[in-house]
Amino acid sequence: MGNAMGQQAEALACSFLEQQGLRLITKNYRCALGEIDIIMFDGAIVVFIEVRLRRLGRFGRAEDSITRRKQQKIIRTAQYFRKTYPNYSSQTCRFDIVAYNGHDPGKTSPHWLTQAF
Q1: What is the CATH classification number for the domain harbouring 20?
Q2: Mean pLDDT computed over 70-90
Q3: Which 3 state secondary structure label does DSSP give 18?
Q4: Domain housing 98
Q5: Which of 5, 55, 71, 88 is geometrically suited to a Cys-Cys bond with 117, CB 3.0 to 4.6 A?
């Protein structure tokens, strides 16, 4: 997410997840294969989190915008992260989505989908 609303949604998602007990590893991890918005620990589990923001309308909900192709890209990026940082390679991992549906993520409750794909 490059725009200001997207960055706001990522910051809100990170705060929300920290309130749920998750601990931040890094934000906006990038490599040649792609980007992961947030990487956190949930206990001993490494969680790769995609944050989505979408205005409600004819294109559906934010969480529905993550196509199979996008999922595969996130999975490949996560595999690269785990190879690059071997201390995370043996940890169990999962893929979550935090979605905001509406015009303003600050006025919208996050929809947290654990083990989304």
Answers
A1: 3.40.1350.10
A2: 94
A3: helix
A4: 4-113
A5: 71
Instruction: Count up the domains in the chain and report the number.
Output: 1
* Lookup result for tokens 């409600």: 56
CA–CA dist 95, 75 (Å, integer): 8
What are the helix (H) ranges across the chain?
Answer: 4-19, 68-84
Buried b (16+ CB within 10 A) or exposed e, 81-109: bbeeeeebeeeebebbbbbbbeeebeebe
Confidence of residue 47 (pLDDT cuts 50, 70, 90): very high
The number of beta carbons lying within 10 Å of the beta carbon of residue 41 is 15
pLDDT at 57 > cutoff 70: no
Q: 23 - beta bridge partners?
A: 41
Amino acid at 3: N
Contact 78, 97 (CB under 8 A): no
CA distance 59 to 67: 13
